[in-house]
Specification:
Blueprint: H1 2-14, H2 17-20, H3 22-31, H4 33-60, H5 72-80, H6 83-88, H7 95-100, H8 103-118, H9 122-141, H10 157-183
């Protein structure tokens, strides 16, 4: 469990620098944008690897906190439907991005809530609860700060169609094949 927690501290910690220390982030990036991105990327990757390994270890000896009813799987599947569309919306701007303002944060919240609905072990609550708390804190912090520009395709109505088709295809691939292959759990199996 300590590996999972360390991974979350590193991954969510580096993703929280703009929330809690925006001035520090801006000063470091002003000195060397490439240096900041290299540090940010390295810490993110190390954190992600630790999260994956720690979560896998926590699943081997689960401490069950609650047992969700089976019908919540259907609600979770429904909540996850827009996640891939929203996650990629900043890179293909159109009406979806404009309407949601911060689509990746909405995607993170939906992903976390859906998984909390159907997974009741301590490892699940720590992982998905931490991501949910971080996404809420990040969204609240955006009230007082200006979001940074993200490299993206030119804005177009066609981007929305691409997002919906690609997002639903990614959802289907992940739900019916990749989730079982990578995570070891078949959502619809």
């Amino acid at each position: 469990m300590s590996q999972l927690i360390l991974g979350l501290v590193l991954f969510l910690g580096i993703h929280s620098v703009s929330i809690f220390a925006e001035g520090f982030r801006d000063r470091v990036a002003a000195k060397s944008e490439i240096g900041w991105k290299a540090i940010y990327g390295l810490i993110s990757i190390v954190g992600l690897v630790l999260i994956i390994q720690g979560y896998a270890a926590a699943r081997m000896e689960p401490l069950i906190l609650y047992t969700p009813p089976v019908w919540l799987r259907h609600l979770a599947a429904l909540l996850l439907l827009p996640v891939f569309i929203l996650f990629f919306a900043p890179y293909l701007p159109g009406r979806i991005k404009t309407a949601t303002k911060h689509p990746q944060l909405i995607a993170a919240k939906l992903w976390a809530v859906a998984h909390l609905l159907v997974n009741g072990t301590l490892g699940d609550v720590i992982l998905f609860g931490s991501v949910l708390a971080w996404a809420v804190a990040d969204r609240i912090s955006l009230i007082r700060r200006t979001p940074r520009a993200i490299p993206a395709a030119p804005e177009s109505a066609v981007n929305d169609a691409i997002l919906v088709v690609a997002g639903l295809a990614a959802y289907a691939a992940f739900s019916f094949w990749l989730h079982a292959a990578w995570i070891g759990v078949a959502p619809f199996g």
